[in-house]
Amino acid sequence: MQVQLLNKSLGGLVAVGLLGTALAADRPNFVLILADDLGYADVGFQGCRDIPTPHIDSLAATGVRFTSGYAAHPFCSPTRASLMTGRYQHRFGYENNIAFDPQNPLMGLPLSEKTIPERLKAAGYTTGMVGKWHLGAAHPFHPNRRGFDFFHGFLGGGHDYFSVNLRQAMGEGYQVPIDHNGKPRDIDGYLTEDLTRAAVGFIRSRSGGPFFLYAAYNAPHTPMQAPKERLDRFAAIQNPRRRTYAAMVSILDDGVGEILSALEAGGVRDNTIVCFLSDNGGPTQSNGSNNDPLRGAKGSVFEGGIRVPFVVSWPARLPQGAVYSHPVISHDLSVTALAVAGIPESETRTLDGVNLVPHLLDPGLKPPHEALFWRMNGGSAWAARAGDWKLLQTGANAAPNLYNLADDLSEARDRTEGPALEADPAARLRMRFDQWNQGNRPPFFPGYREYHEVKNKFYRELIGGAD
Ligand code: CA
């Protein structure tokens, strides 16, 4: 029944793409909520007990929770590049965390890449973004120039939650003014709440016609900061870092609740697809996050670096309270947005993401991906997963390790040394990875630490100062 409904609906949607906007009212809104550095075990629907997240959990209750939902990268900026393009970011050499440098017009999401909001805008969607961009800080890369009608947030990789301070607006830009459609603003209170108000304002300002909202919260990324009254609520948590983290996640959850309320109030909740995920695994040391039972953390190709809380809710169409276990990846959401907007498949065939809707309506379909891949540090660390098998290499001098995630989710037992397997999954995965990797480019900019080192050295030498 649901499949028939959707087929009928998608038939209409295709007609929209071909014929114009006659059926625009049928097209769903799309709200993509991204958390930053949230641990795998740190929301209620993933089993978290010490941080209540009722609003994020409500998405699982009204939608589909993914048990093998992956970020496209073990850290921030490249995952965002995949989300904004629907492609593996390695296709265009975007593999490092980008430095904050508003003066560098060459370093950002390549202008040759057509973005998801650009495509949706051309299809008649109104597009808005709040929060962390992290895809280039120079003018050509500004979200307002990359497809977003509305932007309220910041261009770097993180931000102070309370303060804007022009005199300290150097380094990674953590205290630059908030950017509101290109105009500087102070933070109104606590940053996570400020971003929520902007997201809600964007939803309320819509008056007919579908919209796309990308709510890229920087919580619970460092710096670890939260208002005192919220910290007091978590006084029972002994570890001060975890306590602050809990307060930050709790305010993020409130933000999700306010976004959902705004959709309800606007009468559009049922036909809005709301997705929630983290951009990478939790960096357990720096922010007190918890990736249990996964091995590894942010920056690692073990599951703890890439497997994240991942949920999609679309009450009008998708099953509710459902679980989907085949592996999916962040840029699947991007391509799903294009598909439900009625953008013809002929325009998106070269993208790597897969429209998940048919798979969620009919779990009997073959999995969305034959294999998924990760690559970092120019290829010295990488991973490939096909079915339950995963092969990974953690560094240039490390030997690859093979794991079977079905009975070893924590990647504790390397199977490369085990008894000979009938069909060698390591060789098969290695071959698949090499094939995929042939279509990739080397990183076209260095990581942010290396970038600043080189730049600072250049200026020190230029002005003749002592090193
Ligand atoms: Ca991150």
Question: How would you explain this protein's 3D organization?
Answer:
By secondary structure, this protein is of the alpha/beta class. It is 31% helix and 15% strand. It has 14 helices and 16 strands. It has helices spanning 2-19, 54-61, 76-85, 116-122, 191-205, 228-233, 240-265, 284-287, 303-306, 330-340, 345-348, 357-361, 425-438, 448-462; strands at residues 29-35, 64-66, 69-70, 126-132, 150-154, 178-180, 183-185, 211-216, 272-278, 310-313, 322-324, 328-329, 372-376, 381-386, 389-393, 401-404. It has a ten-stranded mixed sheet with strand order 7-6-5-4-8-1-9-10-2-11, sandwiched between helices. Strands 13-14-15-16 form a four-stranded antiparallel sheet, with helices on one face. Strand 13 (372-376) and strand 14 form a beta hairpin. The N and C termini lie far apart (71 Å). Bound molecules: calcium ion.
Summarize the structure.
With 467 residues, the chain is α/β, with parallel strands linked by helices. 31% of the residues lie in helices and 15% in strands.
Sheet with most strands: 10 strands, mixed
In quaternary terms, these chains amount to single chain
Structural class, please?
Answer: alpha/beta
In angstroms, what separates the terminal alpha carbons? 71 Å
The mean pLDDT is 92
Low-pLDDT residue spans: 1-24
User: Order of helices and strands, N to C?
Assistant: HEHEEHHEEEEHEHHEHHEEEHHHEEEEHH
Shape: globular
Q: Order of strands side by side in the largest beta sheet?
A: 7-6-5-4-8-1-9-10-2-11
Number of helices: 14
Q: What small molecules are bound in this structure?
A: calcium ion
Question: What's the Cα radius of gyration?
Answer: 22 Å
The helix content is 25-40%
User: What amount of the residues lies in strands?
Assistant: 15-25%
What is the strand tally? 16
